[in-house]
Amino acid sequence: MTIARADFLRLLPVAVGGAAFAVAADAIESRDATPAWRITLSDRPARAFGPLALPVLAVRIAVDDPDPAIRQAFLDRFHRGFQRAGG
To answer: What ranges do the domains of the chain cover?
Structure first.
């Protein structure tokens, strides 16, 4: 994702539907959420466009539920939480 870690954490509550979570270094885990989930973050080199450098954050998401529909619903909500309007 082209986003700074601080901005990712600021937007995360909306992306996970207000579920409680705990942050420990590069790992973010749900607390008593259904489905349970874990997100792992890794800083990547910035993307340079001329004089502009955009922060890049690798995001790995694991959703702990055997039902593919529930996993997909979580991912859909997560993606909507980070969508930005653009032209």
So the answer is: 5-82
